[in-house]
Write a structure and sequence with these properties.
Chain lengths: 114, 115
């Protein structure tokens, strides 16, 4: 049981380049999330998908887009990377709406924009 | 707007000591308060969580204390071990309405337990 799998684990981009971070979960969860982690800031929500077919903005959505491809997969796209997007990105999933609302996180993608 | 404030930013304790991390929240709609533990190079993992209908929850050496009137909650790690050295995040969310399980995190505390 892999849980939440993110690819790639590391990435270096030049300013203005684009890339897509991939996330897949095998727990049949309905909700999925993208967070970014920066020193001293904790984790901040970028976008989320409450259920398959829906996506919505979180706290820091500017510069990002997302796609909920199916129930398992939720991707995050940077159309034109900026140095301010240097961060560690975490995908998470949960079975929101049930008594067990634990969020499970992937191992993260460390992105550097130069 | 930081809705969950966590302190201290870093904490050093000796093996066998008690580690205490504090969080305060602003949104009174929050009704689920988890603590996450993160080791270097890994994603956060749920450590323990509490709902506001109880004032304390204990799981092994880890205890959450919750003060609803003060809008504060804390994590106590008893008999701290070097293996507890990690970053700890408090978080909050609310179960109903349009929360959809979104978590609001504190800033994190880097805990170092010296042998």
């Amino acid at each position: 049981n892999a849980g939440v799998t993110q690819t790639p684990k590391f990435q270096v981009l030049k300013t203005g380049q684009s890339m897509t971070l991939q996330c897949a979960q095998d727990m049949n969860h309905n909700s999925m999330y993208w967070y970014r982690q920066d020193p001293g800031m904790g984790l901040r929500l970028i976008y989320y998908s409450a259920s398959e077919g829906t996506t919505d903005k979180g706290e820091v959505p500017n510069g990002y887009n997302v796609s909920r491809l199916n129930k398992r997969e939720f991707s995050l796209r940077l159309e034109s990377a900026a140095p301010s997007q240097t961060s560690v990105y975490f995908c998470a999933s949960s079975e929101w709406g049930t008594p067990n609302t634990e969020a499970f996180f992937g191992q993260g993608t460390r992105l550097t924009v130069v | 707007q930081q809705q969950v404030k966590q302190s201290p930013q870093s904490l050093i304790v000796q093996k066998g000591g008690i580690s205490i991390i504090n969080c305060a929240y602003e949104n009174t709609a929050f009704d689920y308060f988890p603590w996450y533990q993160q080791f270097p190079g890994k994603g956060p993992a749920l450590l323990i969580a509490i709902r506001p209908d109880v004032s304390e929850k204990k799981e092994g050496r880890f205890t959450i204390s919750f003060n609803k009137s003060a809008k504060q909650f804390s994590l106590h790690i008893m008999d701290s071990q070097p293996g507890d050295s990690a970053t700890y995040f408090c978080a909050a969310s609310h179960a109903g309405g349009t929360s959809y399980g979104k978590l609001t995190f504190g800033q994190g505390t880097i805990l170092t337990v010296h042998p």
